[in-house]
């Protein structure tokens, strides 16, 4: 018996899920896109077993349907799906970064023969598209599931078991609570990163030294400002009320810094840093080092002991000098992306070629 998995939106997240499922015994992965070119790319890259322009064909006899399109398109896809013939017992899930709006849409579309279970893998990056997809993306990350009321435990367990292939840790969360928490730890930080980059961009228009000197800390805190504009437009509009309330609180935080500076309140500034240091040190993941380099590579690395040593030893044997190493925090809990810096472009190029020849996914 083959288990069929249909994936709509084979980009960074849909493509990474497809890679986790594809080639596993008894599983068949079918990708859908409304664009012929996208079908060609997903087949060429070996991300799916089959690809189709037809929604009907994609979902025919499917046991699982993953909606991996931007948040703003999820509802329209769900509505269309609910009008198609679907296999009884089929599980429909999504990967959207917000959960309350899709949960409400699913509730208004109830259909007794299929189950909707909202989902959100808490892993990703500022990159997008199937080109950035990786089997390692979700390894050891949290994967939130928000089952609709009335979904039988058996269906929830079936999805949870399939998701073991992503090596993520599944966690059940209420959709409204999800949006409040993820608003604070993901949506607000994206806005802050973009606002900060744009503030400096405006200063830089008058004096190019801003860009020249911006490195290290500025790059660290603003990596997520390079995220996809459409994906983020949809996320922020979908979680608008939560984000507006968070921005009000943010104004208060910034307001308190303004007051402390106006009043030359050194103790208050120290207290703020001490409080932040304390909370940050309790986070499950730690940022390493500050990077100020010229030529950089990013490498997807599995969460295996010794993997970083293996890569650096390999490069050492090739006489390639690394000037700095950083494990990029793009997910909860795990190192997933290795950031290597080189003083010379030729060293970066040689490292890239060598690591690619060893089968690593390398990004410049
Ligand atoms: N980027 C990230 O790190 C994370 C994103 N998500 C969520 O995953 C979903 C997909 O995001 P990514 O994979 O990052 O984006 P992506 O841009 O890499 O992939 C989106 C896919 O949907 C397709 N698509 C776009 N508009 C479409 C439309 N109107 N109709 C049909 N297909 C369309 C694109 O061609 C692409 O294949 C979003 O809902 C996002 O909120 C969830 C976790 C992490
Ligand atoms: O790149 C990062 O640090 C991210 O924050 C990636 C990300 C983007 C959207 C999500 O819903 C979850 C994770």
UniProtKB/TrEMBL annotation:
<dbReference type="InterPro" id="IPR008927">
    <property type="entry name" value="6-PGluconate_DH-like_C_sf"/>
</dbReference>
<dbReference type="InterPro" id="IPR046825">
    <property type="entry name" value="PDH_C"/>
</dbReference>
<protein>
    <recommendedName>
        <fullName>Prephenate dehydrogenase</fullName>
        <ecNumber>1.3.1.12</ecNumber>
    </recommendedName>
</protein>
<dbReference type="Pfam" id="PF20463">
    <property type="entry name" value="PDH_C"/>
</dbReference>
<keyword id="KW-0520">NAD</keyword>
<feature type="domain" description="Prephenate/arogenate dehydrogenase">
    <location>
        <begin position="3"/>
        <end position="291"/>
    </location>
</feature>
<dbReference type="Pfam" id="PF01842">
    <property type="entry name" value="ACT"/>
</dbReference>
<dbReference type="InterPro" id="IPR045865">
    <property type="entry name" value="ACT-like_dom_sf"/>
</dbReference>
<comment type="similarity">
    <text>Belongs to the prephenate/arogenate dehydrogenase family.</text>
</comment>
<dbReference type="InterPro" id="IPR050812">
    <property type="entry name" value="Preph/Arog_dehydrog"/>
</dbReference>
<feature type="domain" description="ACT">
    <location>
        <begin position="296"/>
        <end position="364"/>
    </location>
</feature>
<dbReference type="InterPro" id="IPR002912">
    <property type="entry name" value="ACT_dom"/>
</dbReference>
<comment type="pathway">
    <text>Amino-acid biosynthesis; L-tyrosine biosynthesis; (4-hydroxyphenyl)pyruvate from prephenate (NAD(+) route): step 1/1.</text>
</comment>
<dbReference type="InterPro" id="IPR046826">
    <property type="entry name" value="PDH_N"/>
</dbReference>
<keyword id="KW-0057">Aromatic amino acid biosynthesis</keyword>
<dbReference type="InterPro" id="IPR036291">
    <property type="entry name" value="NAD(P)-bd_dom_sf"/>
</dbReference>
<keyword id="KW-0028">Amino-acid biosynthesis</keyword>
<dbReference type="Pfam" id="PF02153">
    <property type="entry name" value="PDH_N"/>
</dbReference>
<dbReference type="InterPro" id="IPR003099">
    <property type="entry name" value="Prephen_DH"/>
</dbReference>
<keyword id="KW-0827">Tyrosine biosynthesis</keyword>
<keyword id="KW-0560">Oxidoreductase</keyword>
């Amino acid at each position: 018996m083959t288990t069929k998995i249909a994936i709509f939106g084979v980009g960074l997240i849909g493509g990474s899920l497809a890679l986790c499922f594809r080639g596993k015994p008894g599983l068949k992965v079918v990708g859908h896109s409304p664009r012929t070119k996208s079908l060609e790319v997903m087949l060429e890259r070996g991300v799916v077993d089959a690809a189709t322009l037809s929604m009907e064909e994609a979902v025919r006899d499917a046991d699982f349907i993953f909606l991996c399109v931007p948040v703003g398109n999820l509802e329209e896809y769900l509505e269309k799906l609910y009008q198609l013939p679907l296999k009884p017992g089929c599980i429909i899930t999504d990967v959207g970064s917000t959960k309350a709006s899709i949960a409400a849409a699913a509730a208004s579309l109830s259909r007794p023969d299929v189950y909707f279970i909202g989902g959100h893998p808490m892993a990703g990056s500022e990159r997008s598209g199937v080109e950035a997809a990786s089997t390692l993306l979700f390894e050891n990350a949290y994967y939130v599931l928000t089952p609709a009321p009335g979904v039988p435990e058996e269906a929830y367990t079936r999805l949870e078991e399939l998701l073991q292939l992503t090596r993520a840790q599944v966690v059940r969360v209420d959709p409204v609570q999800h949006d409040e928490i993820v608003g604070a730890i993901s949506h607000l930080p994206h806005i802050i990163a973009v606002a900060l980059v744009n503030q400096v961009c405006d200063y830089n228009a008058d004096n190019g030294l801003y860009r020249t000197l911006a490195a290290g800390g500025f790059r660290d805190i603003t990596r997520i400002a390079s995220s996809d504009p459409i994906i983020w437009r949809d996320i922020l509009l979908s979680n608008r009320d939560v984000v507006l309330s968070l921005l009000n609180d943010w104004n208060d935080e910034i307001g308190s810094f303004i007051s402390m500076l106006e009043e030359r309140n050194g103790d208050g500034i120290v207290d703020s840093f001490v409080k932040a240091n304390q909370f940050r040190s309790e986070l499950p993941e730690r940022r390493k080092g500050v990077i100020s380099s010229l030529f950089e590579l990013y490498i997807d690395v599995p969460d295996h002991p010794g993997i970083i040593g293996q890569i650096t030893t390999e490069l050492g044997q090739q006489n390639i000098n690394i000037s700095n190493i950083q494990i990029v925090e793009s997910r909860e809990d795990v190192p997933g992306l290795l950031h290597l810096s080189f003083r010379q472009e030729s060293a970066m190029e040689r490292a890239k070629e060598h690591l690619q020849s060893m089968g690593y996914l390398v990004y410049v």
